[in-house]
Amino acid sequence: MALTGSLQEVEPADVLQLISMARKTGVLTVVSRQDRAQVYFQDGQPVHATCGAASGEEAIYNLLSRSEGDFSFEPSPIDCPVTITVDVQSVMLEGVRRVDHIRLLKGDLPSGDAVLNVAPEWPEQAECMSEDGRMGTAERALLALVDGQRTVAELVQASGLPEIDAHEALHSLISQGHVVEDEPQVADAAKQLAGVGRDDRVASAAPSAEDIQRLLERVASL
Fold it and tell me: Is the pTM of this model over 0.70?
């Protein structure tokens, strides 16, 4: 029997911990509006993972930042490449550190559905900085994508960068004045032209101790 649930009820870190504590073998699949992730477990140890374009440990780091989506764990023998060789606790600790850092960065960034544009007074200077190497690789990659139509969330996804690198690059571009948030009416018009809807996220509630215990019992019974 598969274990199923919603990330609005249980955080990704808790799901990974439950499977690890129960020492299960099988595949965890998480499907959200953002992407699809899979984590392959062998005796409770994640050995391979994919999340969007990311794989290995980076995929788990991305998964840990998700706040919405549906998950299911299917116990079964696995056949996959081994892309994760560190123990689960090390992956979790680094993942939580990254998630905390991204949350801090997001606190200084416009919301995920805010549309960004190159600042009117900066394009020439920004282009020169990009060309002469005074701007980092991540900043150059993000700057090239800023077009007055993409939202913060879309820029992070389109960059192909690890989420933490993309958020740091956007933070740098905005703090230096190279990129600004469009006015609301301009942003709404740009998103309508691009055919992009708002990403209305629902804040996830922290699971209770009873929820965690109930899930642990379900995992152990699989």
Answer: no
